[in-house]
Amino acid sequence: MTSQSPSVLECRSLGFSYRGAAGVTAVLQDVDLSLQAGERVAIVGESGSGKSTLLHLAAGLETPSAGQVRVKDTELGSLSERERTLLRRRELGIVFQAFHLIPTLTALENVALPLELEGSARGREARDRAAAQLASVGLSGKADRYPEQLSGGEQQRVAIGRALVHQPALILADEPTGNLDSATGESVFRLLLEQVAATGSALLMVTHSTALAERLDRTVRMVDGRLLAQDEAAAVGSPAAGPAA
């Protein structure tokens, strides 16, 4: 990456709050974050610090109370809900901690689904591309298995295949190894990095693991809804920049 690499994600002065019985609660406050094409960034922080909320705003799954989110050259606030859905199908891939595979679809059908929804491939072409993607995550022999017939690690491999099959500009991963044992989690994390590198996608990953975060290009820390600057992050013991893997 160079300083001339195009921005895939721009969050500017981002805020998010909600009104409850106790009044207004601020979840995010004045967050600025930018990712370049192909860059891999980790967000670390305590539970409740706003990490997942930031990911949801970046995906257009939530609407900010203040500020802007721009994916490539599109400002999400200018889009209708349907237009945001179409942009997600085209430009984003999302990997959840809890897998969120469709239980009535096989592994192959789960991976093919983004292609069919986005319309870039259908029928035989979508199945062929999904089969190739399953092979790339090591599951070519389990294409006809349903999620309940797969281990947790295998389900997350399917989820990674589904997120990357349409070669999105940006992958958003929310604790992708959080439901896995340490050995399986390490295998899935390495696979995620390999797949991201192969497609050239940028990666924004929420994690509680400092060890995993340090293997990405850059680490930012959230505390009480704020994204800390480099000197602030160093002062609380979490570096704002980590070595590349």
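That was protein one. Protein two is written in the same sequence-then-structure order:
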Amino acid sequence: MKKIKKRGAIYGVIALLLCVAVYLNWSYVDTPDELLAADQTNPDSTETSGTAEDQDYFAASRLSREQARDEAVSTLKELSESETADQTAKDEAAAQISALAEDSVTEANIESMIRAKGYEDAVVMIGDESVNVVVAPPEGGLQATDVTVIKDIVVAEAGVTAGQIKIVEAE
């Protein structure tokens, strides 16, 4: 009975730490809706894509994403190396570390492929049930054909359905 309670406590700690990592990632990265609202209230928002401000957004988003992921991996690594954790918890932590690393590689591949298709920049965030893509729109804005091209890349690389993909253009 004591072993079952200990295992439950360890799983609870893992879940709590993952929730904290997700919350930190969510709170440090502006959501696309907030970005659009902020841009619409700025009277000087007639800049074209490709400005230093656009590049700063993409760089900052990537940095925030990586920091949150690094923090989650660090926490999971501590758990997997803990002498008090049972083997099941260690195995689960190792699997989650592997999944986070896989997501990181997939995000980088998708971002590279989007740039290879001629788009200036993009940042991709893979979640449990969705993939969010923020893309620097081409001149004239993001068109239906652009959305189709980007969705095709994400579907092929991430193995998700088109309904799980949200594409937003950076303003």
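The beta strands are 122-126, 131-135, 165-169. Keep this in mind for the problem set.
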